[in-house]
Structure formats: C-alpha cells, structure tokens
Amino acid sequence: VDAGWLRGAIAVWSGGYALYRGYYAAGGTWGLPGVVRAAAHGQFMVINAAAVVVLLVAAAVPFVTNLAGPADRMRQLLSVLCWLAFVGCCMHAVVDGIDRVLSLSGELQVTYPFTLWESIDRRAADLQDLLGNEPWFLVEGVLFGALGWANVDPPHRRSWLFTALAAIAALTVLGVLSATGVIGRFVVG
Predict the structure, then answer these.
(1) Alpha carbon distance 187, 166 (integer Å)
(2) pTM (2 d.p.)
(3) Fewest C-beta atoms under 10 Å: which of 16, 31, 58, 154?
C-alpha cells in the first residue's frame, strides 16, 4: 500500500467533508436532512464549525507526522493516531448504521437533540445519515486503517490490526446495546 497515496486520499476525503460541514457552520440551511424547522441554529453552526476543525486536523495529521522529526517517534505517533481513527470512525459508522436501520424498521427510535430542532422528519434524517454520513465515517476509518497498516513495522502489523478489529467489535456491541436500551446510556462517538 502506497502511504503517499493514502495521505492524499485522507486529505481529500476529510477536506471534502469539511467543506460540507463548513457550509452549515457558515449558516447554510439548504439540504438539512429531515429538518423541518431549526430551533437553535447558532448552536448547530458552532457544532459544525468544531467538526470542520476536527476534519482539517484529520486531513493534516498524516502529512505533519510525516514531515516532523525523529522518524521513529513520528511513525509511532502516526500508528497510534491511525489506530484511534480507524477504530473510532469504523465503530461510529457501524453503530450508527445499525441504529438507523433499526429506526427505519420501527424497532428503535433514534433520539435527536431537540434543543437543536423544533421539528424533524425522522425517516429523512435516518436515510441521510445511513446513506451519507455513516459511509463517510466508514471510508475515513478504512483509509486511516490502511495508512496505519502501511506505517506499522511488518512484524507488528498482525497485532496492530487484531487489536483494532477487537476494539471495533467490542465498542460496536457496547454502542448497540446502549442504543437499544439493554444497558445504560453509553456514548462513544
């Protein structure tokens, strides 16, 4: 796997999503999925502005760690950051994807922050999240996973991948159990 290509793909993918979130951070309202009327648009703008910052950092991290010195320390840091992004993004995509499928089937009622919305079309919001946001998280996670895999020394790759997949599985189970009310509220991503 070419690490240079992966760095560029992460930058483009994160940057593109930052533009999308930046539109809402700047006050845009067109295409707000499922939202009939916003109650606290300023708060929504702040949430999206924070997301833009996180996305731009995600786009820059692979390059910054590649350029900054000593190489061994930066490779280790990049491996850890890639592991966290891989686990967090993939877990988020799977848990929220399952939640949205359950919501669309009527088995679960996804809770929305009603401090932000006066009214919401749940079906439209579920579909937008399932078909738009969660695939983005999954691709972002896989890109960071591939970069982490390429960055880890070959003798350690198997354990790096195994621990990441185990963490994704454990956190996914925890997230779904929480969302379905089997255990108490536990929010991870």
Answers:
(1) 18
(2) 0.86
(3) 154
